[in-house]
Write a structure and sequence with these properties.
The complex is a heterodimer of chains A (about 240) and B (about 450). Chain A is α/β, with parallel strands linked by helices. Chain A has eight helices and 13 strands. In chain A, β8 and β9 form a beta hairpin. The two termini of chain A are about 35 Å apart. The longest helix of chain B has about 55 residues. The two termini of chain B are about 50 Å apart. Classes of the chains: A alpha/beta (about 240), B alpha+beta (about 450).
């Protein structure tokens, strides 16, 4: 297996070196850049599998850069920002970043995100599902880029990251039986908040949050196999 | 100690009282003067008429033979004067000294009455005073007379008083309206000052009269200065906070390269603590979150998610309450507030219960723990920023002591209240109570 190439855009020299080293030690090929022009030189010269982008760059901002990259390519992007704000996260994800990594981060967190995004990028291209869309079922609306779920009454339903990932998997595989093992695999794509909780606990929590007005959540247990999401999903 | 609170009259009240006093004094004085003058002329008038009547009476009665005199007297009795005739008076009325003047006047107008030994007296049957008197005829018999209608004079006086009172009252009403209108900017100023500091600044319209206008302008300018000062400080601190995150990032990546496992973990914990401090400082300063709009959010699910997250980190936290509860809130702010309360509780207690209690137009998010609680005296201080209570009990003081201050700020921005109480059965109870007008329960 050839190692993935990661384009790292970070203006702080020491942090760039340290991040690059951490990535290299974990088997990735790293192409460091400190400014937008440098990034474009590398981006146009060779194929990259992932871009790690600091949101606060001198000159062109990371957000603007992300928008420009998105016009040309579908390459996965992870935002790095010192602003831990919800708004920043949402803006980043809305303009097409795949994930968001707040500063400061540890090597473990960095690796988890990188691995998850690389894996997810591969899978979702296979399943031919656009992540930058909304989907709705039974009056509920899922906004994938904002990672937001809206109830039939129009209220925002706050889910944990793992719960949202599980819901995404269900929505993308509606009316198909999904094996537990597959769900575990899918829900582990965001390792940042992974723990030993079982998939069944996650499912029961999601059910509880999705039921309302006397209506059961559209998740049925298929004994011995896994689960099925039996609702009509429409995309917009 | 008992404080007797004296009810304050307010500026309008005071000015009104001053106005009332002035008007009353003015009214009394003028009425008194006017009444005296009019009474005087009334009396003169009266004397004139009395004199004329008496002359005629005396003449007519004297012309008649004594037999016809009583009939004549009753004929001469009019609405105003009561006239009687008598051969002699058993007790002729004495002269009242205060009516000397009146008699002299009468005599000076009608000199023919000079030899009539006229006597005048004031009688006050009940409230009405009347002049009674007597005089002799040339043959020594007596005519007694009395005025009848002094009472109507008094009615007239009361009418005049009331008539004069009407414009005075109107003046008072108009005056109070004008004063109240003049003081309107002051009232607005007070309201603005009361609200200032809890949210956006309030620019007052620069209207009003001289002094008031100056105060309003000064207040607006002061707000601007305070705002700028706070902004500058906040920006500086937030910038430092953001900038610190890059070196801490470097530090954390470097720590990962340390070979000694124990040392590495310890250093990693320190770095995380620094990070937590920065995060809470930025949260307190509002430097991290831009103004989120209030959106319809399911706060019951939010509470459940906070509980689930804590459970996933190995804590014993439960949620009790409805499955769904919609409210218009700043969801992520409120989540941070609840999260802070739960984190706080878990620092001192083993089991924590989060409950959502829907009430009439309000909702309570309650966090109850089984820890030692907070000494009663420190309950209020606990909400202050940079306050960490009971350092002896708290072995590792995490953060900057901003947790509850952040909660209070967020709850305040929702027009709500944060209440801390020690439960009688032990443990602390923290209530976030916010108004939820127009909220809709689902489950």
């Amino acid at each position: 297996m050839t190692s993935s190439t990661i384009l790292l855009v970070e203006d702080d020299p020491s942090l760039r070196v340290l991040t690059a080293r951490a990535l290299q030690e974990n088997g990735y090929t790293v192409r460091p850049a400190s400014t937008a022009p440098e990034m474009w030189i590398i981006f146009n010269a060779e194929p990259v599998d992932l871009i790690l982008l600091d949101i606060m760059l001198p000159g062109t901002s990371g957000i603007e850069l992300c928008r420009q990259v998105r016009q040309k390519s579908d390459v996965p992007i992870i935002f790095i920002s010192a602003k831990g704000s919800e708004t920043d996260r949402v803006i980043g994800l809305e303009i097409g970043a795949d994930d968001y990594l707040p500063k400061p981060f540890s090597t473990r967190e960095l690796m988890a995100r990188v691995r998850a995004v690389l894996r997810r990028g591969g899978m979702e291209r296979q399943s031919d599902v656009s992540r930058r869309n909304e989907a709705s079922f039974d009056g509920w609306t899922v906004n994938f880029p904002r990672r937001e779920l809206t109830s039939p009454t129009g209220a925002i339903i706050d889910l944990t990251g793992a719960e949202f990932d599980l819901l995404s998997s269900f929505v993308h595989n509606a009316q198909r039986v999904i094996a537990r093992e597959r769900l575990i695999e899918l829900s582990r794509t965001r390792l940042g908040d992974a723990s030993d909780r079982s998939i069944d606990v996650l499912v029961s929590r999601l059910r509880r949050k999705l039921q309302g007005a006397g209506k059961e959540a559209p998740i049925t247990t298929v004994r011995g196999v896994g689960y099925m999401f039996n609702a009509e999903v429409s995309r917009s | 100690m008992i404080h007797l609170v004296r009810p304050s009259l307010g500026l309008v009240g005071r000015i009104l009282i001053i106005l009332l006093l002035t008007v009353t004094v003015e009214f009394c004085t003028s009425t008194l003067l006017y009444e005296r003058a009019s009474q005087f002329s009334l009396r003169e008038d009266e004397a004139h008429r009395l004199a004329e009547h008496l002359v005629i009476t005396r003449k007519l009665i004297a012309e008649r033979p004594p037999r016809e005199r009583p009939a004549m007297a009753s004929l001469l009795t009019t609405d105003r004067y009561d006239v009687r005739w008598g051969e002699s008076l058993p007790d002729p009325p004495r002269m009242a000294p205060e009516l000397h003047e009146m008699r002299d006047q009468i005599v000076s107008w009608e000199p023919s009455l000079a030899d009539s030994e006229m006597r005048l007296q004031l009688k006050s049957p009940g409230l009405n005073s009347m002049v009674v008197g007597g005089m002799t005829l040339p043959d020594g018999s007596w005519i007694t007379f009395g005025t009848r209608d002094v009472e109507s004079g008094w009615d007239l006086a009361i009418g005049r008083v009331i008539l004069a009172l009407v414009p005075a009252m109107a003046l008072l009403v108009i005056g109070s309206l004008l004063i109240s209108n003049t003081l309107k900017p002051i009232r607005m100023l007070a309201q603005a000052a009361e609200r200032y500091g809890y949210g956006d600044r309030i620019i007052l319209p620069e209207v009003g009269s001289g002094e008031v206008l100056r105060v309003v302008k000064a207040f607006n300018a002061m707000q601007d200065r305070i705002q700028r000062l706070i902004q500058d400080r906040t920006q500086a601190l937030a910038a430092v906070g953001h900038d610190l995150r890059t070196p801490i990032s470097r530090l954390r990546l470097r720590i990962d390269m340390v070979g000694d496992c124990a040392a590495r973990d310890a250093m990693q914990r320190d770095a995380i603590e620094m990070e937590t401090m920065i995060a809470s400082l930025l949260a307190f300063l509002g430097g991290d979150e831009n103004d989120q709009p209030r959106v319809r959010s399911d706060i019951a699910v939010m509470a459940a998610t906070v509980v689930d997250d804590a459970t996933d980190h190995g804590h014993d936290v439960r949620y009790e309450g409805p499955e769904h509860f919609d409210a218009f809130v700043r969801l992520y702010d409120l989540k941070r507030a609840l999260d802070n309360l739960v984190t706080n509780a878990l620092r001192h207690a083993r089991t924590v219960t989060v409950s959502l209690i829907p009430m009439d137009e309000r909702v309570i998010l309650r966090v109850v723990d089984d820890g030692p609680g907070i000494p009663e005296a420190d309950l209020e201080a606990a909400k202050q920023p940079f306050v960490r209570l009971d350092t002896a009990r708290e072995r590792n003081t995490e953060g900057l002591g901003l947790g509850l201050a952040i909660v209070e700020r967020i709850v305040g921005a929702h027009a709500g209240q944060l209440r801390l109480t020690n439960r009688p059965e032990g443990g602390l109870q923290a209530d976030i109570e916010i108004p939820v007008k127009g909220a809709q329960k689902l489950a």
